[in-house]
Amino acid sequence: MSVRIGVYLCHCGANIAGKVDIDAVADFARGLENVTLVKDYKFMCSDPGQALIQKDLENKLVDRVVVASCSPLMHENTFRKTVERGGLNPYLFTMTNIREQCSWVHIDSDRTTEKAKDLVAASVRRAFLLEPLTKKEVPINPRTLVIGGGIAGIQAALDLAEAGKEVVLVEKEPSIGGHMAKFDKTFPTLDCSACILTPRMVSVGQHSNIELMSYAEVEDVGGYVGNFNIRVRKKARYVDSELCNGCGACWSKCPSSRVPRKGNVHEKLSLGPTTSIYMPFMQAVPAIPVIDRDTCLYFKNDSGACGICAKECERGAIKYDMTDEIVEFEVGNIIIAAGFKTFDPAKVKRYGYGRFDNVMTALEFEVMNCASGSTGGNILMADGSEPKSIGIVHCVGSRDSHYNEHCSRVCCMYSLKYAHLIKEKTDAEVYQFYIDMRCFGKGYEEFYDRLLSEDVRFVRGKVAEISKVPVTETEEGKLVVSVEDTLLGTVRRIPLDMVVLSTGLEGSETLPEIAKLCSVSVGKDGFLIEKHPKLGPVSTATDGVFVVGGCQSPKDIPDTVAQASAASSAVLSMITREKIEIEAATSEVDEDKCSGCKLCNTLCPYQAVKFDEEKEVSVVNEALCKGCGTCVAGCPSGAISAKHYEDRQIFAEIEGIFSGGL
Amino acid sequence: MSFEPKIVGFLCNWCSYTGADLAGTARIKYSPNIRSIRVMCSGRIEPTFIMKALYEGADGVLIAGCHPGDCHYQEGNYKALRRYRMLKKVLPDYGIDPGRIRLEWVAASEGEKFANVVDDFTEEIRNLGPLGIKEGLDEMMKDDVIPHHASGGEKGGDDNEA
Q1: How confident is the model over A109-142, as pLDDT tens digits?
Q2: What is the 8-class DSSP label of residue A142?
């Protein structure tokens, strides 16, 4: 029986039709062999558009479908479902990308139309050779891995745990809490950060459905959606968590410090002890200290001198001989909540960070403001005195083509928060040096308005330099901020006691590694790429892997929490299905042709091709095969074929491209 | 009118095809000489695909995959690299300038790079001029690759026994 191919051309409003002459492509397609029907429609992905295809299939007018529209990465699944509803195997459908890689990227209308014709011809040739395939169903493990225990990971883990699902939460630091645990107040409500966060941290620690692995890192991710195999390294804390009761006797006597000594008040800007055995902060979950091996005297001295903490510990919880522990387990889905890091302002040499005392990063200033911090929440200069004037420099490392082009979204607001806190705690004058005030969230603009009436000085301009070279008497001993005040139209020099650099947000150091393990891409901006910037904000190109929080883009707390809940609900919807269909386009060995050379066995990165000793041929395990086709290309006997991407199908596509002539 | 070369692109689904899509969503303009074929991984791309494209009339062939270390399938791009280097060595024996094929790493975030690569490669191929099948290529190739015209041959025919 002859093959009847239906070609469906989408105008995509003016997106395609504005550049490609649809009528010309339609006429061209009508002339192609085996094409029995050509239709075009304004929006093929709309309900009536899909109905068009479905009806033709139901009426048995066609038995192969080519849709020429947007990228298959956008709507391949949509149309596969349409075709399926019409009673046709979804693998007898193929898609032609005449939008993202055609109408949107070329200027000349005629040549773009020619290209569209070639691409349609290629798809038609390919469609002729398509084979029906059956999707496999695999069960979904109801357990979920959450990577990162900041507010994003905490929220996602709690949502899932509350729904009765098991969660493994892996955090690389000794305690969960992330950046939010270092904040004193949160904008714009000025809620106490610890007061709203710590109850959740405790819930995570106590929840029977959450297995918390702190001070641990994911080392390997194998498997596929529904069935990931995870390997985690639990780093040695050198403190037995079963025996330790968090009394603090160990760190109160520890003689060594894990922070470099500066000999001033800013030396110990930390929420917890700065000793080598330490608890990151007092509300830590789990409340178990850790020994910093790099600075601990016991580990530095081969002789094992010191050992004071072991002597002080009444319960004998200090275990110097502890080693890293490797744990392996299975999960069905992964949520990456790996967070962000703040920009290192030492890169901007002219701002003097690291050279001048009293030039601080936002995070250092944040910690100094914390009541549980080393200054008791008092804003102090390095010499211990109270500053009389403080400048806050916006957009350090953000909106700057030398460092990061993106806006970090939170700096305007936390800078306003700092101004408020400074006004509340000291008599200092406050200057804000800003480019634009971006106060977009709920209650944010109102907070800005409030600050305008709190006697804070706003200078619109990017700071050129922070120096310590006085030219007048008033500048003596001060940090001098040089800035062009673009509202006054003049260059100003403003002498200040202290400067806070509002550093932007970047993807964390570990992000590229985690992304690689989970087969997720890192964007040009250093953040993870979601499936779709608008309609797939938490899923990724890899099924079963989700992204939330600061590792996806800079985000404030409300957005992070919302995204975390979105990801956990996406995971729940996967788990509730219990089963998931996985790609049918795998490799297949023709046993008659296989010479048994085993070359493919070593080529496969998933160990999906194994040698059958009895039959003396290689066999593909379809559950493990991900359909990359590397073995197919490598087989010297041509015995392996890649379903849906067979040699002859690709050859046909190539022929199609050249069938129209140029 | 200047010579407009025809270029076939083989793009891996996860990085380069996505990167090419990104050039689209960002409306970055590049020359319309390329026709891309999507494969799951650059490791799937066989030298015969490239020869076939040249045989059918391509003046240049672009292969694009994930950056080293970023392959969605862990290491398919390394296999692509080896096959590419091998083919580059063999091409002169066929009378074909090895500059007619190019391998590039294009990440999902590199829409601009994809556009630049296509423009640059198109220019290079334009300078090389049309690929002469009369150079003897067709004679040498006709035993190697059996064309599968949709009209001809039986469906399900064998292609690997070449």
Answers
A1: 999 999 999 999 999 999 999 999 998 888 999 9
A2: S
Q: Out of B45, B150, B155, whose CB is closest to A33?
A: B150
Residues in chain B within 8 Å Cβ distance of A122: 35, 37
Q: Is A9 helix (H, G, I), strand (E, B) or coil?
A: strand
Reference A142, options A170, A165, A168, A169; nearest CA is A165
Helix, strand, or coil (residue A587): strand
Which range (A77-91, A473-487, A501-515, A530-544) has the least confidence? Answer: A530-544
Q: What's the confidence (pLDDT) of residue A29?
A: 96
The reported pTM is 0.80
Could you tell me if A507 and A340 are in contact, meaning their C-beta atoms sit under 8 angstroms apart? yes
3-state secondary structure A254-311: CCCECCCCCCCHHHHCCCCCCECEECCCCCCCCCCCEECCCCCHHHHCCCCCCCHHHH
pLDDT of the residue at B157: 40
Contact yes or no for A662 and B39 at CB 8 A: no
Residues of chain A contacting residue B131, judged by C-beta atoms under 8 Å apart: none
| Minimal C-alpha gap between A589 and chain B (Å) | 13
B6 and A112 within 8 Å at the Cβ level: the answer is: no
ipTM confidence: 0.85
Q: For A239-259, how does the pLDDT look when each residue is reduced to its tens digit (9 = 90+)?
A: 999 999 989 999 999 998 888
A381, A357 contact by CB (below 8 A): yes
Residue B82, SS3 per DSSP? helix
CA angle A626, A574, A170 (to 5 degrees): 80
Distance from CA of B22 to the nearest CA of A (A): 7
Q: Which residue of A has its CA nearest to B111?
A: A524
Tell me the mean pLDDT in the region A525-539.
89
Q: Is the pLDDT of residue A474 over 70?
A: yes
User: How far away is chain B from the Cα of A139, in angstroms, using its nearest Cα?
Assistant: 22
Residue B43 DSSP class: G
User: Nearest-CA residue of chain B relative to A521?
Assistant: B108
What CA–CA distance (Å, rounded) separates B162 from B151?
20
Query: Is the Cβ–Cβ distance between A502 and A392 less than 8 Å?
Result: yes
- Identify the structural domains of chain A with CATH numbers, from first to last: 5-133 (3.40.50), 136-235+324-339+508-580 (3.50.50.60), 236-323 (no CATH), 343-506 (3.50.50.60), 583-643 (3.30.70.20)
Helices (H), A150-273: 151-162, 193-206, 249-253
Residue B78, CA atoms < 13 Å, CB-side half-sphere: 9
What percent of chain B has a predicted confidence (pLDDT) above 90?
A: 65
**B115 with A105: CB under 8 angstroms?**
yes
Indicate the residue of A128, A639, A641 with minimum beta-carbon distance to B150.
Answer: A128
